[in-house]
Amino acid sequence: MMEGFFIIQKGKAMYSLKRVLEIALSGKHNCIFFGSVDLMPITIEKFFIACCLPCKCGRFFRGACTCSDLDIQYTLANIPSRQLNLSDMYVPINDLRQDVDCERINAVHRMQERRYRNNKSKYNGNLSRNGFEKYCRMDFEAQEFLKDAQKFFKCSMTDMDKVVRVARTIADLEFRETISRFDVAEALGYVSCYLHLKRRIV
Amino acid sequence: MYSDNLVHIWVTLLGRPAGKIANLLVENYGSLREAYLVGSYSDVTCELRNNRLLCQRLLDESIKDRAARIYERVLEKGVKITHVFREDYPEDLKNIFDPPFVLYYYGKLPDKNTTLLSVVGSRKCSAYGRKVTYDMCFNIAKHGVGIVSGMAKGIDARAHAGCLDAEGYTIAVLGGGPDNIYPMENEVIYYRIKENGLVLSEHPPGTMPLKHHFPARNRIIAGLGKGLLVCEAGKKSGAMITVNFAINEGRDIFSVPGNIDSSYSEGCNSLIKAGACIATSHIDVLEGLNLVEGRKIAGTVGWLNGLDKEEAVVADLIYKGVKIEEISSITGLDSARVVAITTILEVKGILGRDRHGNLQVVI
Q1: What is the ipTM of this complex?
Q2: Model confidence pLDDT, tens digit, residues B291-348
Q3: Are residues B271 and B203 in the same domain?
Q4: Which site from A13, A14, A93, B15 is most exposed, i.e. has the minimal number of CB atoms within 10 Å?
Q5: Is the Cβ pair A148, B347 closer than 8 Å?
Q6: Are B230 and B268 in contact (CB under 8 A)?
Q7: Long-range contacts for B257-260 (Cβ within 8 Å, ≥24 apart)?
Q8: Is residue A1 part of a domain?
Q9: B142 and B225 part of one domain
Q10: Is the CB of B344 less than 8 angstroms away from the CB of A196?
Q11: CATH code for position B330
């Protein structure tokens, strides 16, 4: 059960932090924030929210970054690979505080507990690929979009799993059973910055 | 072991500029071969005795050994050689100040009839620069013009890729030996150029790509082409060194304009201010090289046609330069919705990311 408030950010950033946190907390997704300050990872009930620098100077997603390509590769390599690979969402942020709507999150938690009562995993965050067919039902449009996206970003199956998991939580937040095209697109938006960092697709 | 090529490699090791030394030797001995066979101090002519350093090197056996070792490596790697006195040496390159005396290459040298265009730009570039470079080089290569560039990251790599995709002729001038692939990311491009174009270097095979080789390499890039196209260059970019070489050799400069507040295009815009030709399409470049007559340029009107209402609004705002953070407050859309729409646009190929990970309109 979530209580109180914590976290970061307000005002200007591409991603509204409130939204990201709602998704992260209600689905219990592991999550990495790329901020301008190095913070220790917070671990809550077996899932973590970490904050780290995207590059040496810390200004990668805000323009005016002076690092060379190699520097960025090294910084990325210095993040423990377990945390990097286990995360579902990667979001660039500024470092400020933000309130979260706890009631809504708790409602989503209850919903997931009901749904996964016969399953090994209890939340969307640790749902495995075997459960996708049963629990993550998608529109035809959403499926087509996912295929297109995988071709375009040239990403691995592990990366696509992250997208599906997060899209499930986004649909849960609006209490819908089927995942729509916009859910998938939004979930992809939270991973695409990492894909860009990793592979420099331009 | 004696051969024509060995003697010319030996001359490059005597000092710089090699062309001047070669002329001096020919004046004194009649041919380079005679100079190579000089063995004792008594054979050295009066004029050369005054030039102490050259006289020393002329008699030095270790330099001859080095030349022999380089020649062995050349034969081993299958590298081809040409030098200034041969006919297949590129005509435009012969006339620059300090032309490279010996060229090591893979592939085939350009015909005398082919027109060449040098393309330069910075390694750090935006999505706009990459797209423009690729499109321009693709279309220019379709008209039978060869593309010369440096096979570096960024603009150079895109220029080669565009030319190769149009099945054109392209020349890569390297900073190390011709067998040394640098950077390793462009390995695929390197092998494609080796088959269909020319990989060129003034350094013998096995040389590492060192820092100071690159400015010297730029003079070859500038010298090979009839004109120089600057696609995207910062203020202190290495591309500006090439531009200076090209101006000194009297080549035409074409510059692609960019946003005035973009740090990537500062160099290009300042070139335009100084009087370079503005290249807004491949036709401008071809006209400048006297290859085609004037034609109408197709505009990019109607690029919003295939999109939904919300998508069109967001794409239009980004195109106008509105920051992505401000879109949700201007349009009243949910920020989650904005993230979704921008991702959809990215997958559709309308938005791209620049080096800093910021979204931009690519079309």
Answers
A1: 0.71
A2: 754 333 333 445 677 788 888 888 888 877 777 777 888 888 888 888 889 888 888 8
A3: yes
A4: B15
A5: yes
A6: yes
A7: B258/B128, B258/B129, B258/B232
A8: no
A9: yes
A10: no
A11: 1.10.10
